[in-house]
Design a protein that fits this description.
about 190 residues, alpha+beta, 3 domains, two-stranded antiparallel ribbon, about 70% helix
């Protein structure tokens, strides 16, 4: 008889204990939905930038937690520095920094070309080069220029290829840094 009461007692307190944490986890889930509401609302299934937005939000959230946390651990300062670097790299990736850099050296004027074809108006975009300082850009990026200069003869396409190469290296660096340290940020 004593064992039955002990089992009932243990079962009752087990479910009370579990209920307490179930309610707590439910509240945390609602809070997370509230915190992620803008990101979830702006999600477009065909747009890769959503993943970057989600990563940026999560990294920023973790950085804020580390900066305001009263819990101190050995690698906290290192993790804060790494998270700030990741945020900087991610912002450069999102704003497509290296493509914009090409436009500092190459000024173009865009215009529409109208073609009438079977009563349907097709518009194409044309461009005229106003100012070409790509030689400075090629000197600045000499190593990458030497990789592609034999393959691509058009100067503008070569500049965009260099920018894409630099952007890909930046993205690879971001994900390599993230993959090396992702498990250590949450300790």
């Amino acid at each position: 008889m004593k064992n039955v009461f002990k089992e009932l007692y243990d079962t009752f307190f087990y479910y009370c204990y579990e209920l307490k944490y179930t309610i707590r986890n439910f509240k945390i889930g609602i809070k997370n939905l509230w915190n992620y509401r803008r990101i979830i609302y702006n999600d477009k299934q065909w747009d890769y930038s959503f993943i970057y937005d989600l990563l940026e939000f999560k990294i920023q959230y973790q950085l804020n937690w580390l900066l305001t946390s009263k819990n101190v651990y050995c690698q906290q300062v290192d993790n804060i520095i790494k998270l700030k670097r990741l945020l900087k790299l991610l912002s450069l990736i999102k704003q497509d920094y290296y493509s914009d850099e090409v436009h500092k050296y190459l000024k173009t004027d865009l215009f529409f070309i109208n073609d009438d074809f079977d009563d349907i108006n097709f518009n194409e975009i044309g461009s005229n080069i106003i100012e070409d300082n790509l030689d400075e850009y090629f000197i600045k990026n000499r190593k990458v220029h030497n990789l592609y200069s034999d393959q691509i003869l058009n100067r503008r396409l070569l500049a965009y290829k260099i920018a894409k190469h630099k952007h890909d290296r930046l993205r690879d660096l971001f994900f390599k840094m993230l993959s090396n340290d992702i498990e250590g940020f949450w300790d």
